[in-house]
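User: I've been trying to design a sequence by hand for this structure and keep getting stuck. Would you show me what you'd pick, starting by listing the structure so we're on the same page?

Assistant: Good idea, let's start from the same input. This is the structure you sent:
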């Protein structure tokens, strides 16, 4: 079978950072909404406690918990990013009519398009989700040929979702 598109992604700290930001934003969507609501409630509760004179410690504690719940989902990616940012990994992709072939180090794995969970397209990357925990990253700059053609192929074969990140 003839290769339609090829790409080589050399993982860099910037790609890792971008990936983890997108991955955690997608994985924690519901969590982010819930913690935002609870965070606002806790902040309001803290102000209420302070105004009613129930004690400065309780007011500060409630506001601190509220602030933490508002901020944490937006910085959750930092710990896994710091662990991974210095690892050197190169993945070679070959896109065929019916499947994707990935070669990392000396291991080649083929994935049929219908076995993929989803594909997320950003301005810079294609994130290919094999499962919720297994993701391959294609740097669009490394695609040989027409990037939009590759995106159309993936859209016709998988669940492709475009996001702005």
């Amino acid at each position: 079978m003839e290769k339609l598109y090829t790409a080589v992604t050399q993982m860099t700290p910037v790609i890792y950072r971008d990936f983890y930001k997108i991955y955690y934003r997608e994985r924690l969507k519901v969590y982010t909404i819930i913690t935002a609501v609870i965070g606002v409630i806790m902040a309001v509760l803290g102000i209420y406690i302070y105004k009613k004179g129930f004690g400065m410690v309780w007011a500060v504690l409630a506001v601190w918990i509220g602030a933490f719940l508002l901020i944490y989902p937006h910085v959750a990616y930092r710990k896994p990013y710091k662990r991974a940012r210095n690892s050197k990994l190169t993945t070679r992709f070959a896109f065929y009519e019916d499947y994707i072939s990935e070669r990392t180090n000396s291991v080649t794995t083929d994935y049929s398009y219908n076995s993929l969970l989803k594909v997320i397209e950003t301005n810079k990357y294609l994130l290919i989700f094999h499962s919720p925990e297994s993701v391959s990253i294609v740097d669009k700059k490394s695609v040989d040929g027409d990037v939009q053609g590759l995106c159309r192929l993936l859209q016709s074969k998988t669940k492709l979702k475009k996001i702005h990140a």
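That's my pick for every position. To get oriented when you compare it with your attempt: Strands lie at 5-10, 90-95, 99-104, 107-112, 118-121, 125-131, 134-139, 160-162. The mean pLDDT is 91.
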